[in-house]
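A student in our group prepared the protein record below, which I am reviewing. What it holds is a sequence and that sequence's fold in token form. My question to you is simply how this chain folds and whether the tokens agree. Do not assume that whoever made the record got everything right. I have pasted the whole thing underneath without changing anything:
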Amino acid sequence: MGRMAASPFAFLRGSACVMAADLSTSPISGVSVVMDGDAGNGDDDPLFLQVKESVQAAHAPYLPPLLEEFRHNGKRVVMGQRAMQASSDPMLGYTEMDGRHYMVRQMKNLKASIPVDFLSGAAFNFYAWACGAILARAHSRTGDPARIAGYCGNSAVLDEALAEWSESYGDQTEQDHAQLLASIKRGETKAKVESDEGS
């Protein structure tokens, strides 16, 4: 633990072994490696870290340039996670190799999902509410709660505005999809159609 106190990555002893090339399901993952060290309860209790390349945000070209302190994409991602997560990974960090930006995090398989296709009625409504509540809680951590509450107010004005925007967004998505299908049908856009698994 003395080495850990000096540096979170001191346990690697400079001899971490690369165990996998890309374990991430994220489509933007250019490089992802896993290393193990001995920071657990002993030599037989390894700790796995994922070093994942962090690329420029997709919307970045349409925004003003970032301040210098946020131009490291690994740091940008890490700062965002720390701001939104109630309890962040103690191993969360960032680094740079050969001019490429990376984030570092503890490798834990805690991802799970709910088969949304099987949800309907009250169950679906509760699932949507829970997702919204979790997302709202995460984003509310990045601002001043009192100011956010004051902005929302006690009336239904904001609720109705958000509902109207959401319905408009859904309508626009359907229109965009219809245009895409029409473009594919006319032969203007090439598409590869994959059948559902098992069909």
